[in-house]
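Listing S7. Sequence submitted for prediction.
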Amino acid sequence: MPGIVHRDVTARGVRLRVVEEGDGPRVVLLHGLFADHRTWDGVREKLKGSCRVIAPDLPGFGQSEIPPTSRFAYDIDAFTEALTDLYAGLEIGRAALVGHGLGAAVAMTVAARHPELVSHLILIGAHAYTDGSRAEIRLSRAPLLGSLVFKQLVSRTLFRAYFRGRLLSPGARVENSEIDALYEAFNAPAARGAALAALRATQDTRPIIACTGRIQTSTLVIWGSADAVYPAQLGHRLARQIRGAGLELVDAGHLVPVERPDRIAELIERFVFGERHGRITPVR
């Protein structure tokens, strides 16, 4: 596949934007909340020489269609069904599946329900444990105030402050222009509504945790050691719950693929091509 390709694919009746690049074993990259396929730009650049990298925008995010909640539930089941449809539409077959945050919760669910689709599972800062103390969770639960804040009051300045204060580690070398690009995608009224709907619909993580006992795929858990959203001990906990999983801590905040794309690409290559890059030891 020469160069980078942008295409639209219909999955569960929703138009999804997909970015593909490279040739070789397939690696599917799933972004998290308040993000899109650009989360993976640096990782994709490093992997394109050895893999066919496939990075979709999930329904409601980035350049994908933003369906109303009457058409799309924005819960883990809905995202999982859309992804399996995408696999069929692109004839992906068996692939390494990498997810960050919300995308990792979707990846776990796909691996548990459709093991034939997943050769390797890589989970980065996974949304796997409920934490009602998070400010964004508490805010989203307020029916009127939550809608007002998300749909009208989140400015570019507040969005930047949230990324700098919560999603990135102190002093992270990430340009404001990168954050502003994500803000522009978030800033449309429908996109703000989709982000709020996803935040509300995925708060109960019990079904996600229930999937961990059914995952038979080789799994690597990656976590930012300075993650302020999901503390690193949750990475240890998740790696222990998935049989045979390995664990790697990376010097970064929650947005590990953005802060440390070279390191994430290296870990993906080590895990997918273990014989060439050195194996990763499972957590005991």
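Caption to Listing S7: primary sequence and predicted structure tokens for the chain studied. The longest strand covers residues 4-11. The CA atoms of residues 9 and 90 lie 8 Å apart.
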